[in-house]
Amino acid sequence: MSGAALAVVVVVVFLLTFYLLQRYGDLRRQQRMVLFGTLLSWYLCFLIVFILPLDVSTTIYKQCILDNEPHPTPVTPARHINQTETGSSLHPTVSVLKSCEEPWSYIPDGILPVFWRVVYWTSQFLTWLLLPFMQSYARSGAFSTAGKNKTALIENAIYYGTYLLIFATLLIYVAAHPNQLTWTKLQTIGITAANTWGLFLLVLLLGYGLVEIPRSYWLSSCPGYLLTKTYFKAAKMATEKAAAEENLADVMEEVAAVHESVRYNHHLRKCVDTILTKCPTDYQEKMGRDVESSHGDQNVLPTERSLVSLHKRVISAVQRHNQTHVQWSILVDEAFHLEDVAKSLSSSAHHFIHSFSSAQQHSWIRRFIYTPTVEWYWECVFRRCFYRLLAVLLCLLSAAVVWSECTFFSTHPVLSLFAIFIQMAEKQYNYICIEMACFVSILFLCVCVYSTVFRIRFFNYYYLVPHHQTDAYSLQFSAMLFCRLTPPLCLNFLGLIHMDSAISHQDRIQTSYTSIMGSMHLLSFISDGFYIYYPMLILLLCLATFYNLGSRCLNLVGFHQYITDDDLTSDFVDEGKELIKRERRKRQKTEDAENRRWVRNFLYKNWLCILLFDCGVLSFTMQNVGAEFDTSRVFSHSSAKRRMFLCAHLQSELNMCTYGQNL
Question: Which burial class, exposed, middle or buried, applies to 321 when counting CB atoms under 10 A from its CB (0-12, 13-18, 19+)?
Fold first, then answer.
């Protein structure tokens, strides 16, 4: 394919990354610098995940060629050799009549080493240097570029100093040995330090995701459980929403006071106007009316530093207010849908009915493919079976990962399930199976880790919210986590399939990805100790997650979590149920008013004179056009509830006409 597979993967991964950024970020309002940094970081991390299987199949093909050479040349398996075409054979032979078939996704020599260097070092530069600075820059309340740069440098001084301290400690450790210190060894020290930090966090996130993802799919097959948990979330979100509204109101009072005290001829007026542009529109209009009606009372003039602090709090309060309102709307819609599912389960008509017409999307897919009958069978019959089957498959994959993480260091015999499967496919030179197995395995590991990154929440400082509501700080923080987690995740996967010589100690060609990592034996206490035994901690973390130990601890310290056998959870569920009932009544009144308005507009445009019920088909005559037509054509784009409103109104009109004629 001469690199065609690589080009296709590059384009597909970019589209996937852009979709995720569009879903979580706001492409119109957020700073271009923030969006570009997040897009580039996510893109580079996803590229590593998608291209690593191609690197594995290419390396196996090169190993096949080397094994079938008539006069193999032994080489050392050290990682510092950058050209992946060098290596040695485990079973050298003098003459073999077997030919190696080139894989369909074969990438020519020299492309992958350069590609990995660019991707890896760019992602490391972003995560350790640029993104922390951009985070502080985006959160700064300063009104000038110089002020934001100054704030970012001050906030990251301790951050960068910690990196230098860790690097200096490792440097002293290496310098204490008699080996000569070279630039390659310095690179290896930096790579090892970054991978060690990433592996430490990776095991924690992976231990949670390996249990929580299969369990979430199994529980998602039960509509009753989902509805109860949604009630719990609604109660918590209502509290957060009220707190966000109160906080916004307090901040807006301070802005109003500053707006009144700083007049238009003051040198700080430009800063006040900048703050006003960040306020919601209704508050801006209210402040404008209050200033016009004020009597010119002079309050204490603020300082520039206080305005910077106020600007920062305004941005945070408005962002949090918008997030809670969007999340509340999503939770309410989800609760209504789950209540509709619960009602439809007992329906004998096999027809899914939505409580509100606004929940139905009047598209051609809804009309011809995903009809109410198809929707009923999916929501009430097939969804449960599909989710439980998927949960069982994910549970088997999780068990295979846990077993392999605890046994991947054993090469004689081979105990890692992933290594066994790859070696079986390697004997047959079945590159399709090798690539698919690698892709599915590493994709599952990434889903377990990345989904945890998307789910976790550090108070209100880091929280990824869909529907374009994620703030700049959270987007860049997630980009930093991705860049730090992906390289050790890929190295851990290569260790699971015994293609990392630092762990398996096998004498064979290394992948191009491991060739840029350098020789981990330079820091033997890490390569032979931490990298081998620390991943075994996944077993304990999985057990802790299975028994909800983390959720119970958080519940004890005041961070309420959903625990089925807890009394406080039951109180939250009852409160959430009442809140959803209240929202249902409000939405019902709103929709009824809209339906009545629609009926009045319809009758006004098509003033009715005669109503006929003939053979059960509703039809009527229009005086303004003098033609009779079937109302099913008119109602084809309207909801069932609106048709009901119109029929009821027309029936009442007919009854009034009949009563008048009798009189």
Answer: buried
Phi, psi of 608 (to 5 degrees): -95, 140
Q: For residue 440, is pLDDT > 90? A: yes
The phi, psi pair for 585, rounded to 5°, reads -65, -40
* Dihedral-angle region of residue 181 (phi above 0 means left; psi in -120 to 50 means alpha; beta otherwise): beta
SS3 category, 24: helix
What would the two tokens of residue 564 be? Answer: 């089925």
Peptide bond into 108 cis (omega under 30): no
> CA–CA separation, 446 vs 213, rounded Å?
12
* Ramachandran bin of 3, using left for φ above 0, alpha for ψ from -120 to 50, beta for the remaining angles: left
pLDDT at 612: 42
Share of the chain above pLDDT 70, in %: 78
3-state class (DSSP) for residue 540 = helix
Q: Which ranges of 606-639 would DSSP assign to H, the alpha helix? A: 631-634
| Closest by CA position to 518, among listed 491, 496, 493 | 491
Per-residue pLDDT reduced to its tens digit, 289-336 = 766 665 555 567 888 889 999 999 999 999 899 989 988 999 999 999
CA 478/CA 454 separation, integer angstroms: 8
- Tell me the pairing of strands 627-630 and 608-614: unpaired
Q: What's this model's pTM, rounded to 2 decimal places?
A: 0.79
626 burial (CB, 10 Å; 0-12 / 13-18 / 19+) is: exposed
Place of tokens 């998608």: 50
Task: Tell me the C-alpha distance between 280 and 533, whole Å.
Answer: 53
Q: Name the residue among 131, 102, 112, 111 with its Cα closest to residue 55.
A: 112
Listed in sequence order, the residues at least 6 apart from 325 whose beta carbon sits closer than 8 Å to its beta carbon are 241
Can you tell me the distance from the alpha carbon of 250 to that of 283, in angstroms, rounded to the nearest whole number? 12
pLDDT digits (tens, 9 = 90+) for 464-477: 778 788 888 888 88
DSSP string of 618-632, one letter each residue: EEEEETTTTEEEEHH
